[in-house]
Design brief:
P-loop_NTPase; 6-stranded mixed sheet; 4-stranded antiparallel sheet; single chain; Rossmann fold; ABC_transporter-like_ATP-bd; alpha/beta
């Protein structure tokens, strides 16, 4: 994959500015600062317990940092509840699958459209035509997502009957159904075999290319990270220790010592 030239970066879509988060006496994030750029795939890596999921939880409104700001398209979103952050155009998948197991794939994806639905229960009753048109529009978008993720054959199946890999794909679909401008993926390939990982990496690239969606992902597979990411942020013990292109991060001595190990370092010429 050809990574975007770091000398031609656009204005940031999100600015993570000196974010600090503590739980009692435990510091989960310590003055973390970096930018997320529109239309790019950006990875967050680091050892277990480095603060990666805590940072995603701060962005999506599940945690409220005690210090710093997180600005999305110029607006500080710290303190906003998760549903308001979702309405601004930020969607999220979770490390542990958070689907409704006794509902079909289509119904789970339709739930991802709820933030866009203007026809409530009363307007749906009094203005049935408008509500019906809105439903058709949302279903059309969901069908696009189903086609993109190649899950046509399981669209009517109960999610709980699907394999783990397919459930992860459906969860990606539900987040994508929100049509976000920024998509947060927390270990989307965890627990997958190599074939499933390759499929997921391809879908992430397709989403980025076809929808222009900015994607931030936490991932432990360094092969995937280096292949598909435009920028990489590295956390250790809640601190940002490196940020840059995959090549820059991979050759950074601090990253090699803290996380990658010598086998993942860029070969010397």
């Amino acid at each position: 994959m050809t990574h975007r030239d770091s000398t031609t970066l656009p204005a940031p879509q999100m600015e993570i500015d000196h974010v600090g988060l503590s739980f009692g006496g435990v510091r989960a994030l310590l003055s973390v600062t970096f930018n997320i750029y529109p239309g790019m795939i950006q990875a967050i890596i680091g050892p277990n317990g480095a603060g990666k999921t805590s940072l995603l939880n701060c962005i999506s409104g599940l945690y409220r940092p005690q210090q710093g700001q997180i600005r999305f398209e110029g607006r500080n979103i710290i303190g906003l509840p998760p549903h308001q952050i979702a309405r601004l155009g930020i969607a999220r998948s979770f490390q542990n699958i958070e689907l409704f197991r006794h509902m079909t794939v289509v119904d789970n994806l339709m739930l991802g459209r709820h933030i866009h639905m203007r026809s409530g229960i009363f307007s749906g009753g009094f203005y049935w035509g408008r509500a019906q048109r809105e439903e058709v529009e949302h279903r059309e978008f969901v069908e696009q997502v189903i086609d993109l993720l190649e899950i046509q054959s399981i669209r009517k199946k109960m999610v709980g009957t699907l394999s783990y890999g397919l459930q992860k794909r459906v969860e990606l679909g539900r987040a994508l159904a929100m049509n976000p401008r920024l998509l947060l993926l927390d270990e989307p390939m965890a627990g997958m075999n190599n074939e499933e990982k390759e499929d997921m990496a391809r879908f992430i690239l397709d989403i980025n290319e076809e929808y222009g969606t900015t994607i931030v992902l936490i991932e432990h597979d360094m092969g995937v990270v280096m292949d598909i990411s435009d920028r990489v942020a590295v956390l250790e013990f809640g601190q940002l220790i490196a940020y840059g292109t995959p090549a820059e991060v991979r050759s950074d001595p601090k990253v090699i010592d803290a996380y990658l190990g010598r086998e993942h370092a860029m070969p010397t010429v």
